[in-house]
Structure prediction request, 229 residues.
Amino acid sequence: GRTIAHARVLADECGGDAIGFEQRYEAIAKSDAVIVAVSAPDCVIRANELKPFLTARESKIIIVDMGLPRNVEQACNDIEGIEVCDLDELAMKAQTNMYERRRCIAAAQIIIDAETRAYLEWLQALMVQPTIKEMYAKCNEMVDTELLRAQKELAKAKGKALSKEEQAVLDALKGSLVSKLLHGPTARLRAEAQSGDSSYLTTSARYLFGLDTHPQDVQAYHGGMKENK
Prediction:
């Protein structure tokens, strides 16, 4: 502050202490970090005046000179235990930190992209697996209906019930038919689920096979997501 009275008002607001300008060297010697920002035509912190106050000092003091022109004499940097940073050094450190942050942003973006892809693949798999299960269930139901009709027709033609061997042949035919019919579509659904962009295929499969718009498991999942939000 320009006056000690004004400085005390600010110090009281911040929970600090205000001291007279003539006590600056004593205060610096008791501090770990000092910011100097004074509107002055010449240096207000000089090496030969500061050095006598540092005799009992063991740890380093960081002095940040915010003045233009400089408030802290360059020779202060030569005093053991004193490190002076001016605006040029701060700008250089800020630029270095900016480069480092940009480098970290690029690395973070790689992680984000990878996790996003993994999440989308997981979400697609969540949709695909119930859909495949329902496709098999529906085909099995249809084949069961047709086989039951065929069994009745065969039994009627023979005049007696089918033997265990004949029944086993029909059961094997059922499993073979369903597997062969669904192998291609389900294999493609599983493969596309890994791309993280296969919802259109899952939706199309459910439409073509006459299933619900979305698997029940996915509806429950999305409902849970909305509740969490």
Residues 215-226 have pLDDT under 50 and may be disordered.
